[in-house]
Every structure is written in structure tokens, then in C-alpha cells.
Amino acid sequence: MNSPRALVLTAGLGTRLQPLTYARAKGAVPVNGEPLVRRVAAWLAASGLRDQIFNLHHHPESIASVLGDGSDLGVRVRYSWEDPVLGSAGGPRHALPLLVDGGARRFLIVNGDTLTNVDLQRIIVDHDGSGALVTMALIPNPAPLKYGGVTVSAEGYVTAFTLPGAESRTYHFIGVQVVDASVFADLPDGVRTESVGSVYPKLMASDPHSVRAFLTDATFRDIGTPADCLRTSLELAEIEGSHLRGKDPRIALDAVVERSALWDDVAVGAGARLTECVVGDGAVIPEGAVFERCAIVAADGHAPHAADRTEGALLIRPFQSGASTR
């Protein structure tokens, strides 16, 4: 079986991950010290998918600088530039020339903001044997109030997409799918279009067997919000060893840093205390400052969001109420 190419969706603005995405694209955010896109690229490579395309828009240099051409990971990396962001269907349409040159007809699409260990070869085989145009990897919905859902027929085909809070039993899409190029080929290039919100429901209406469910017990780790990012980093630190401090940290001897992730060039002053925080590149925590359960970045002229506050040269956003890092 020829391994298909993979498109990793990394063009988004990372709105839910703000303020951490003010300086980096979401895909460049470190997760236990390793940028998310490098984790995804290495995982794809381990399953034999060595021809990878990443779409770019927001802070593209932050992704390109950590991936390059992929040679150090043993893969071929190419980029699809978007301006403006083209969405979950418009992005694949724009990248089609890179995905199908040489005659390829099906490829993987992987969301660039989640980590999973779904068996890629099994989902490819399942897709190829089903005749479906799209095959989506699904797990039982772990948080129906937080995540939208997917309903599945007894035959194993997707029947509908639901909003968070739906009372019926649903599954959760974990960001991996195999698609036929024809799904996107007729879309206009350069026009924002969504897959679940537009293209896939139309496919399902014309053929109820067009979108297949690949049900799995794979792991799913979200990087969607600062609290999600920290929780996933802490989970991986337990497995991999802790790499929660980036390059050139400057931490005073009497400062306390507990269950927190520090990015590059962070300074923590004397007597300061950080508990369950994520601190972005170049932030300087003043002497004696105390922060708990929040994302902290250098303000750098960014206007604070309604949920933010500024303290000197720092912009701080508390984690959402109820968000857990344990």
C-alpha cells in the first residue's frame, strides 16, 4: 500500500489559545518542550507518511523555523500559504496541487492542534475498503458539554454533526481523516469554506455512505486553550520526563515555579511564585509577583482582551473557570 500524503492544518489564528498565540502560531507552541508541529510530523513519519504539507497563515515563520524542509525528521515538508485563512475545506482545496501531483487521489488531513495515537495504517485500509469519500477517526465523546459531537449509523457511517451539549450519544472527531481529492476539487480556490459546517453535510445528503466513521479507542490530547496546553504538557512530562522550561530560563534561587511551563527567554524574579501557569517567550516575572492558573505573555503593545489584565510589561489571562490541569 502506498502511503498517502498528509496535510496538517496549521493556518488558524489560535484564538482560543490566546494570549499564547500572540507571538507564535498554535502549531509552534511547545508541548512539554517540543513544538506541536514537530510532534505531529514525527508521529506521521513513524507511520510511514513522509510527504507532509503544512498550511500557513498566522505567524508562519514560527512554524517554518521549527520544521524547515523536514530533513532532520526524515520527512519532506512543503507549505501551502493562505491569505486570508481558508477554513477546513478551503485550506485543503488550496493545497490540492501539492497533494495530488503525481496522480495521488486520497490523502490524510490532520488537525494541527491535537495529539493522538490513532492507527493511521488501519484507518487508511478501512477507508480504501469502504468506498467512502471521507473517513473520520472518532472516539466516544469525552466531554459532550465542551465538544461538538458526531452521530453514527449502525452501519458505521456519519449521519450528523451536533453542537456541544447535545443530549444524544455522540462521538468526538479527533482530528484525523482520510479524504478523496474529489471532495474538494470542485470548490473555488481562495474562498473560505468549512468541511463539517458545509461540504460534508452536502455529501451526506447526496449519499449517506459518503462519510465513514472509524471508531477507535485512541488517545486524544487537546491543545485548544492555555489550560489544555498546560494539562497536556504536564501529562507528557510524567511520561517523557519534564521539559517544561525553554531556552535560557533565568530563575531566581528563591523563586518558586510549580506545575508551570516556561517558554524561551523567561525570567522569574526573586521571591516570585508561579503555580500552574504558562509563561510565553521573553516574559519577565517581577520580584515578589504571585501568579496562579493563568497564561502570561510580554504585553508588547497588545491590547488586552476583556478576559485579560495588564501588570507592567505583562499581559495576563486567567484560565477559564472550571478548566483543570489535573
Detailed description of the structure:
The protein is an alpha/beta fold and 326 residues long. It contains seven helices and 22 strands. The protein has helices at residues 36-46, 60-67, 87-100, 120-130, 182-185, 195-206, 226-240, and strands at residues 6-9, 30-31, 34-35, 51-56, 76-81, 106-111, 114-116, 134-140, 149-152, 158-162, 171-180, 211-215, 220-222, 250-251, 256-258, 261-262, 267-268, 273-279, 284-285, 290-298, 309-311, 314-318. The chain has a seven-stranded mixed sheet with strand order 5-4-1-6-11-8-12, sandwiched between helices. Strands 15, 16, 18, 20, 21 and 22 form a six-stranded mixed sheet that branches. The protein has a three-stranded parallel sheet with strand order 14-17-19, with no helix packed on it. A hairpin with a 2-residue loop joins strand 21 and strand 22. It starts with 5 loop residues before the first strand and ends in an 8-residue tail after the last strand. 44% of the residues are buried.
